[in-house]
Amino acid sequence: MKLTRIELHWVRLPLVAPFQTSFGTEYDREALLVKAVTPDAVGWGECVAMPQPDYSAEYVDGAADALVRFLIPAVGALPTVTAATVGHALTTVKGHPMAKAALEIAILDAQLRQAHMSLAEYLGAVRPAVPAGVSVGIMSSIAELLDAVDGYLAAGYQRIKLKIQPGWDVAPVRAVREHVGDGVAVQVDANGAYTVTDAAHLAKLDPFDLLMIEQPLAEDDLRGHAALARRLRTPICLDESVTSPVRAVEAIESGAAAIINIKPGRVGGYLQARRIHDVCAAHGVPVWVGGMVETGIGRAANVALAALPNFTLVGDVSASDRFFARDITPPVVMRDGWIEVPTGPGIGVEPDEAALKEASVRSEGIDL
Q: Which whole number is the average pLDDT over 91-115?
């Protein structure tokens, strides 16, 4: 393909309810969309960076700056472009995996639309639908939490993930487990809020038969996670710690992770996500797709990824209405606890022009 233009679109979508984690509370989703234009097709990608560098070092405006000043020129200098060549062209720029991932998937979307192939088929999906899981934020009270969990279970979600932090952990988890019974899949996510000295306290979660505790310690503390794993019966899942296939192998072989959450933006794109999936499969370690409060652009691509064979655990693959009253694409819909894998070309969805205009904050185009 020959790229002729890249557009950046800043959008803001209000959330149906505040979403609180150990590193802050979101009231709306400020997203950066990337549009790749070729003579024959248009592709879309979503940068999952947040407005502030709290989840990771990346943030929306920083990602946009990296795209405009470095990443888009690097790709624009190529005589022809495919998704496979994008990653190599971007290796001269250190870091910025979320920005790179957004540019790569926009180009891959255009490439696949031109080839009339779905992203799911391209990645190697083996399932027509994936189970829907939901992430439940920190609430102001246990009663509010139980009401929220009841609503998600009534809607059909197959797995409940509870955000935890010091002071909001054992009591709410106990309350949820007692409320829903033993038949509901429950896991927790700490987003790195604890230290290894909290091992005895975290062990108090063991009686609740959790699927896993996700990222209990800081992202750079593999040794601490390995030590914690020896103290807990609950399996440890790593999220922020795993940024590459090499890092995944280190986490597995050190005993720091029994499960790995793969977020395409965090690891630098869907092709890198597939490599991590393959490495984990070779080591017998299950994986699941993590969510970053994506719009329908990122959500549809995540559903395609979640249909690969080693994504055997329910991920953060929820319907659009979990977060948005109006998405910028036709809504991703859950039926009886399942979300169908898009079969159309590319990611299988594209923005609704009216919804995109309503959510738009500003845009910028770069001709190549």
A: 97
pLDDT exceeds 90 at position 23? no
Q: What is the pLDDT of residue 11?
A: 98
User: How far is it, in rounded angstroms, from Cα 280 to Cα 167?
Assistant: 33
| Terminal alpha carbon distance of the chain | 13
Six-digit token pair at 242? 């795993």
CB-CB neighbours of 245 under 10 Å: 19
Any idea which residue has 């922020």 for tokens? Answer: 240
Q: Distance between alpha carbon 74 and the CA centroid of its chain, in Å?
A: 26
Q: What is the pLDDT of residue 24?
A: 84
Per cent of the chain over pLDDT 70 is 100
Does 263 qualify as catalytic in the annotation? yes
Sign of CA dihedral 353, 70, 123, 113: positive
94 among known catalytic residues: no
Active site residue: 35, 100, 161, 263, which one? 263
Structure tokens at 139: 């609430």
Give the span between the Cα atoms of 74 and 71, in whole angstroms.
5
The closest of 13, 78, 95, 75 to 265, measured between CA atoms, is: 95
pTM of the model: 0.96
Nearest to 366 by CA among 39, 65, 60, 73: 73
pLDDT at 22: 84
| Rounded Cα gap, residues 86 and 88, in angstroms | 5
Q: Which of 35, 100, 161, 163 is catalytic?
A: 163
